[in-house]
Design a protein that fits this description.
With 447 residues, this protein is mainly α. The protein has one domain. Helix content is 82%, strand content 0%. The chain contains 15 helices and no strands. Helix 1 packs parallel to helix 7, helix 3 packs parallel to helix 6 and helix 10 packs antiparallel against helix 11. The mean pLDDT is 84.
């Protein structure tokens, strides 16, 4: 590997930054819906906050799978764009719309059917009774969110990233206003409590989908892809090609996020207070993770471009420069978690015990920030090279063979409690980061 301060790498840092920062803010927007819900619901008690945590443990699994499937379009669009193949990208737009709309509907139906399973996880019944109706309404927002993501990933493959960012930021501002109005009952609206939060999220996501469609449909840059657009001549081959990248990408996210979601179940065996504290700390850790995933998306596009140009050194430079940027960013976030561990939880809860436990979890989160940033960026770089099968196996082993079993051992056999769960998750993240970095280095050398 070359020096990280050569002119080639400095140019790569600049290109990656300007491609990534709108994606970072856009990705941040997805997680901020849950963060805002957690913060505002926390003002009405730890039981509703625990219900949000329990509902999100299922919802986030389905959400990240849907988002991951939409990622199957991006490297294909980037590769076709590097060779100016407009007809290929027109076909990718059409098939992406179909696949993501169908995926949103299927995931909505799946979550509605399985939501009663929350009754069988040995959770406090008062928490479950609030979590199921909350989850069912949140699930409805899966359809517009998948449609939005399909258009977003197409435009990001073409390196148009700013508008998706602005739409996401606007949607989150709308969500904050609607939360304020519908949870607490302002401006003539009734106070809906917890259910007001999920309806606010649904409305904001419908607005996102409509705005993103309007942008792609009316913007002059995309006119060439709408020419002769119709839903005839659906290609099974192209559909399989997209899903062959998208489904493993979705599973990679499911294996990681699923480990954290199952951790919610384990922590629920401890107490609702611990569960609420876990949700607070996880909201903050997930925020930095989604921002790092913006760098991952940029790495996927830049590596995909270089793959289309058959430039091996360009692939390695694009990937390694994104890893360096992720390490710098996540290192800064780790310092913030340590310095402000007692202050940050106060934005999410007013209960002293929840705040105290959350602060202890943020110390652990600070130490796995570097691992989290490395593994998510390496996944993006590998996706850009269309290498998804082995990375998916790596994530399965890291989180479900190593991370979760160790979480159980630390928490319940060694009696470390909720902190023990996070020790195990940290070990899983570190394993994934090391193996995925080695995988990128190995595969990029062989191109």
């Amino acid at each position: 590997m070359k020096s990280l301060l050569t002119a080639e790498y400095l140019t790569s840092y600049r290109k990656t930054f300007f491609l990534a920062y709108p994606v970072v803010l856009s990705q941040l927007g997805h997680i901020m819906v849950g963060v805002v819900d957690t913060a505002m619901v926390g003002q009405i008690g730890s039981i509703p906050q625990a219900a949000v945590a329990l509902a999100n443990s299922l919802y986030i699994l389905v959400l990240v799978f849907g988002l991951g499937v939409s990622y199957g379009v991006t490297p294909l669009v980037a590769a076709a764009d590097s060779s100016k193949n407009h007809s290929e990208n027109a076909a990718l737009l059409k098939h992406g719309i179909i696949i993501n709309t169908a995926m949103g509907i299927l995931l909505f139906l799946l979550l509605v059917m399985i939501s009663p399973v929350l009754n069988y996880f040995n959770q406090k019944q008062e928490v479950v009774d609030l979590a199921i109706p909350f989850l069912n309404v949140m699930t409805l927002g899966m359809i517009p969110l998948c449609i939005f993501s399909g258009f977003k990933q197409f435009t990001e493959g073409l390196s148009f990233t700013r508008i998706a960012m602005l739409i996401t930021v606007g949607s989150n501002l709308l969500n904050i206003v609607l939360n304020y109005v519908m949870i607490f009952g302002h401006w003539g609206f009734p106070a809906m409590g917890l259910m007001g939060s999920c309806w606010a999220s649904f409305i904001s996501r419908v607005a996102m989908a409509l705005a993103m469609f309007a942008y792609v449909y009316y913007n002059k840059h995309f006119k060439v892809y709408w020419k002769d657009f119709n839903f005839k001549n659906i290609s099974k081959e192209l559909t399989k090609k997209i899903l062959a990248l998208g489904i493993p990408s979705g599973l990679q996210w499911v294996f990681e996020v699923g480990a954290f979601s199952f951790a919610v179940i384990m922590i629920g065996w401890i107490s609702p207070t611990a569960q609420a504290a876990h949700q607070v700390a996880l909201s903050l850790a997930a925020t930095t993770y989604m921002m790092a995933s913006g760098l991952s998306a940029a790495a996927s596009v830049r590596v995909g471009n270089q793959l289309g140009l058959k430039n091996r050194e360009g692939i390695r430079t694009a990937g390694f420069s994104a890893v360096v940027m992720a390490l710098m960013f996540m290192g800064l976030m780790a310092i913030c978690f340590i310095l402000f561990r007692d202050t940050l939880p106060t934005f999410f809860s007013s209960e002293p015990q929840v705040i105290s436990i959350s602060a202890s979890l943020l110390i652990i989160a600070a130490f796995f920030q570097l691992s989290d940033g490395t593994q998510v960026v390496c996944l993006g770089a590998l996706r850009g090279m269309k290498d998804v099968t082995i990375p998916t196996v790596i994530t399965l082993i890291a989180y479900w063979v190593i991370g979760l079993p160790m979480s159980y051992i630390f928490a319940f056999k060694l009696n470390f409690g909720v902190q023990g769960v996070w020790y195990g998750l940290s070990l899983g993240l570190t394993t994934a980061a090391i193996l995925l970095f080695l995988r990128f280095n190995y595969v990029s050398k062989r191109i």
